[in-house]
Amino acid sequence: MQPLEGMYVLVIDDHEDTLDMTRYALEHDGAFVKTASSAADAMLHIWTVMPHVIITDISMPGMDGYGLLAELQKSPQWREIPVIALTGTGRAGDDVTARAAGFSEYLLKPVDHSALVAAILRLAKKP
Q1: CATH class of the domain at 28-90
Q2: Crossing angle, helix 39-48 and helix 65-73, to 10 degrees?
Q3: Tens-digit pLDDT profile for residues 68-81
Q4: Which residues face 32 on adjacent strands?
Q5: What is the residue extent of each domain of the chain?
Q6: Closest listed residue to residue 25, CA positions, set 58, 59, 2, 53
Q7: pLDDT tens-digit profile of 103-116?
Q8: Is 8 helix (H, G, I), strand (E, B) or coil?
Q9: Is-contact 87 65, C-beta < 8 A?
Q10: How far apart are CA 67 and CA 70, in angstroms?
Q11: What are 6-28's pLDDT values in tens digits?
Q12: What is the pLDDT of residue 69?
């Protein structure tokens, strides 16, 4: 059995390479992965199917990861979805700021795949 089998993961990033690599790696571990290149696109996916976990870049044009998180926190059904911040701009204290805003986990790019899978398993309620 694959570690992420039966889990639905939504990955949001404005860089297509990051989306492709993350999707491929998580699908290899059994997850059903949907990708979105913006927070607005991600919201459309969430309306359709509620993911077990969301992985989002923080720095994106338009609505950033913090804006997406704020939108999710407005809804009682969506605020329970664990959201992992995956960012390439790790400055001192950013992890504290992200967790204070409500992110469940803060990981830096390039992310170690085993650390990402471990975070998903720790945070998501497996079906």
Answers
A1: alpha beta
A2: 30
A3: 999 999 999 899 99
A4: 8
A5: 28-90
A6: 2
A7: 999 999 888 999 99
A8: strand
A9: yes
A10: 5
A11: 999 999 999 999 999 999 999 99
A12: 97
Confidence (pLDDT) at 126: 56
Locus of tokens 């059994």: 30
The first and second tokens of residue 81, run together, are 């979805």
Residue listed under structure tokens 């390439």: 88
Q: Is the pTM of this model over 0.70?
A: yes
Question: What is the rounded CA–CA span in Å between residue 115 and residue 79?
Answer: 23
Distance CA 110, CA 94 (A): 16
CA 127/CA 85 separation, integer angstroms: 22
Residues in the chain: 127
CA distances from 9 to 25, 89, 94 (A): 12, 23, 24
Residue 9: strand pairing partners = 33, 53
